[in-house]
Amino acid sequence: MKDRYEIAIADPEEVIFSRGQGGVFQGVVGGKPYEELIVYRAFPFLYTTQFISIRDAKGEELCIIRDIAELDDESLKEIERELQFRYFLPRVTRVDSVKQKSDLWLWELQTNLGATRIAMRNLHEHMQFPGGNRIILTDINGKRCEITDWQALDGHSRKQLTDVV
Amino acid sequence: MAIIEKLPDKIRARFEQDPLFSAKTDLRSNGHFGEQWIAFTEQELTLWERDGLQLLKIGMNDLKEARAVNGVGGGTLLADTAKGPVVVARYTAALSPLFGFAAKLLTAIAKGEERPAVSEKEFPRYCPTCDNPLSEGTQVCPVCKNNGKVIARMLKYAKPYKSQMIGAGFLLVLTTLVELIPPYLTKVMIDDVLQPKNMGSALLTIVAGLGLTALLLSVMQTVRGLIGVWVGSKLMGDLRKDIYSALMRLSLAFFDRRQTSQFIGRVNSDSEAMRQFMTDGVIWVSGESLRVIAIFVIMFSLDWKLTLFALLPMPFMVIVSMKMWPKIGRRWYQQWRSIFRLNVLVGDSLQGIRVVKAFGQESTEMSRYSEANREVVRHNIRIEGLWQGMFPLFSFIAGLGTLLIWYNGGRSVLQDELQLGTLMALIAYLTMLFGPLQWVSQMINWASNALSAADRVFEIMDTPSEVPDVRDPAPIGTIKGEVAFNRVTYGYEKHHPVIKDISLHVKPGEMIGLVGHSGAGKSTFINMICRFYDTDEGSITIDGVDLRRISQSDLRKQIGVVLQETFLFDGTIAENIAYSKPDATPIDIMRAAKIANAHDFIVRLPDGYDTRVGERGHRLSGGEKQRVSIARAIIHDPRILILDEATASVDTETERQIQEAITRLIEGRTTFAIAHRLSTLRNADRLVVLERGKIVEVGTHEELLDRKGAYHKLVEAQQELSKIKGVEG
Ligand SMILES: Nc1ncnc2c1ncn2[C@@H]1O[C@H](COP(=O)(O)OP(=O)(O)O)[C@@H](O)[C@H]1O
Ligand SMILES: [Mg+2]
């Protein structure tokens, strides 16, 4: 019997992930097939591809993947995609503009998932600095974008950011 | 009933009649930004590209259920079909309410159940004119809102002091005019007395005139200064009061999401910034502009050609100011934010000072502080540096005008086309222009600081309470205490419900024990009764009246709460007990304390009821604090009593005493009690077992034990625990 108080780290050989016909993330964990699996990042900010909690549709934890890089190619591809779906956090590649119109801040952004625009009521509650040069932007409706390292962006973007970070 | 976002024509053409539901997604199936369209009829669920290409089709008879699975920042609409789950559409968090509703409607259709009703909350709202999102509860789009409104609104605070402000303004005009006299007198002195070497009474008269104007000036400046201080202090008092009452009016949900100590500094610093602009700013601007005009009038009348030279640098300065304006505003805000972060940090570590000390983490806290402090310093230098650089630039540019006048004026004097005195007067007036110019840059500074402060202040004032009072509340008088939950659903985060579809009818005077694992939603349940939060779905009634129709002050008068986390205010024990009834007599206070089993220990304290309990009552033990807060609830004499783990943090003997107090307290009142030790709820009329936000069992202790369900398990687990405790002694 498994120890209930032990973190169950999965053996990478024993988990297989794939995508069902309906586009749902599924897989085999410990020899048992599941037609729907949910992925959770235990450290969504610090370790985006490590310590992934795999849960069944009801939310019960099946195991933890220490590092998805240990998985086979097919599984890796699917879990990466699934993480991207579940943790919708587009990575900003360019800041086109940051404008303040009356009391709304409007950001025009290019991200790895396409162009978008976000609006904030203010900066002090909607910009988070989790550490380093990382910035998390949250808009009025809860949509979030991430700037992994604002110092590493191009000159234009940095210029837009100088007075807001 | 159809819920329709207007479909593009190409897709609409594929339907014979309007579908039941249609909506635009904001993500494509591959998770990239973009749009696709979902639509469904009684027969089928479909997904489309904008150009009418069908991507997905599921027949309603294949559909078992639909679920909106929310991730972080976005979500997925899943359809459970006979062949397994299918991804229908993906969306960002902005649309989760809408797709949550779609899922419910789809499930209802699939299962042939009653269709859910739409509420306005479920649709993301965008400003009709500029397409920016509207925040919850507001109707006006912030972008389209009139820009000048903030200033107008700010100036409203100056209105009650109109007469004083006008007085100060009048004095300022006078001062300005008087200030203009000395250079003119100097001109007269040079041209009519000194140069003609014309000694007579004229010299004495002019010197006396100079002395008199100087005296007049200083008197008027003093009076004006005093008025300024008076109006300023009053204004600031008004502002602080308004900000504070705005804060008090806000609902708990507002404070849940924010660190509260930040507001201490904000109330003061933001109102100071606004005051500075309104008193000093407004008076100065009007005064100084007047002075500029007067100076130019005099200069033009002395020599209009030379005066034009002085005007040359003006356009340049205007342009520079206009360009700098937004930048300065941003930098002020940036600086404010770094201070804000610093304050939050300080507030946090001071509130948790016991934990900090207990773990010996003072140095970590210090290094966190110094990092944030460095940021403040950096931003401070940036903003101060910016405007320190601006003023010299302005004076230099303006100085160029003086040089031009010196050169051209000097030539004219040499060619005897101009009197020396006139040139000197012109130069003197020009120097006086520098004053206002300095104020231009200072003013830009003040105004942008004040505007960004005002923005934040008005944001607080404009935040609608999430639990608004109705316009004409139902009078409830003294209630009987009947409480009913009708299919109540609530989540702190929308669409992550913590309380799910709860129905419960509680008779007047009944005692209900709420049990369940920690995190089951017990505290949330009672928060709903206090109306700290409004239901997302369903309703709660007291004596048959919907909570939302009752004014909150009436409601709270009828409800008394004792929480696990007792909070005592800075003050004496007596003041804390009489918190909700300031006119309570000493006898009332003692009686309440007696019932709460607190009287004895209080009297034994050296200072008795006058013992100051200080911030959060650190000087009392857990059980003592608990009993004081029970006394506070007793004196309140509520019809509905709420006890949330009121005895969780005390030993068994104290618990017994508190329990005794509570037993006396609950008599004749409707009571909701949550207790960690199930034995303390044994005499409840009914026990309600909550599990993950749902009621799983209701009944008396005996009934539930017999049923051998969830309650039974909880009791067993606890018995096991007490056995272990027994071993430990
Ligand atoms: N202010 C809050 N903001 C967000 N979530 C909260 C808040 N208070 C409680 N929760 C969440 O709601 C759930 C139920 O909490 P609660 O009602 O306090 O449980 P209980 O009192 O039964 O232990 C928990 O999952 C908790 O994390
Ligand atoms: Mg609780």
From TrEMBL, chain A:
<dbReference type="InterPro" id="IPR015005">
    <property type="entry name" value="DUF1854"/>
</dbReference>
<feature type="domain" description="DUF1854">
    <location>
        <begin position="34"/>
        <end position="163"/>
    </location>
</feature>
<protein>
    <submittedName>
        <fullName>DUF1854 domain-containing protein</fullName>
    </submittedName>
</protein>
<dbReference type="Pfam" id="PF08909">
    <property type="entry name" value="DUF1854"/>
</dbReference>
Automatic annotation (TrEMBL), chain B:
<dbReference type="InterPro" id="IPR039421">
    <property type="entry name" value="Type_1_exporter"/>
</dbReference>
<keyword id="KW-0812">Transmembrane</keyword>
<dbReference type="Pfam" id="PF00005">
    <property type="entry name" value="ABC_tran"/>
</dbReference>
<dbReference type="GO" id="GO:0005524">
    <property type="term" value="F:ATP binding"/>
</dbReference>
<feature type="transmembrane region" description="Helical">
    <location>
        <begin position="202"/>
        <end position="231"/>
    </location>
</feature>
<protein>
    <submittedName>
        <fullName>ABC transporter ATP-binding protein</fullName>
    </submittedName>
</protein>
<feature type="transmembrane region" description="Helical">
    <location>
        <begin position="386"/>
        <end position="406"/>
    </location>
</feature>
<dbReference type="GO" id="GO:0005886">
    <property type="term" value="C:plasma membrane"/>
</dbReference>
<feature type="domain" description="ABC transmembrane type-1">
    <location>
        <begin position="166"/>
        <end position="445"/>
    </location>
</feature>
<keyword id="KW-0472">Membrane</keyword>
<dbReference type="Pfam" id="PF00664">
    <property type="entry name" value="ABC_membrane"/>
</dbReference>
<feature type="transmembrane region" description="Helical">
    <location>
        <begin position="163"/>
        <end position="182"/>
    </location>
</feature>
<feature type="domain" description="ABC transporter">
    <location>
        <begin position="483"/>
        <end position="717"/>
    </location>
</feature>
<dbReference type="InterPro" id="IPR027417">
    <property type="entry name" value="P-loop_NTPase"/>
</dbReference>
<feature type="transmembrane region" description="Helical">
    <location>
        <begin position="306"/>
        <end position="325"/>
    </location>
</feature>
<keyword id="KW-0547">Nucleotide-binding</keyword>
<dbReference type="InterPro" id="IPR036640">
    <property type="entry name" value="ABC1_TM_sf"/>
</dbReference>
<keyword id="KW-0813">Transport</keyword>
<dbReference type="InterPro" id="IPR003593">
    <property type="entry name" value="AAA+_ATPase"/>
</dbReference>
<keyword id="KW-0067">ATP-binding</keyword>
<dbReference type="InterPro" id="IPR017871">
    <property type="entry name" value="ABC_transporter-like_CS"/>
</dbReference>
<keyword id="KW-1133">Transmembrane helix</keyword>
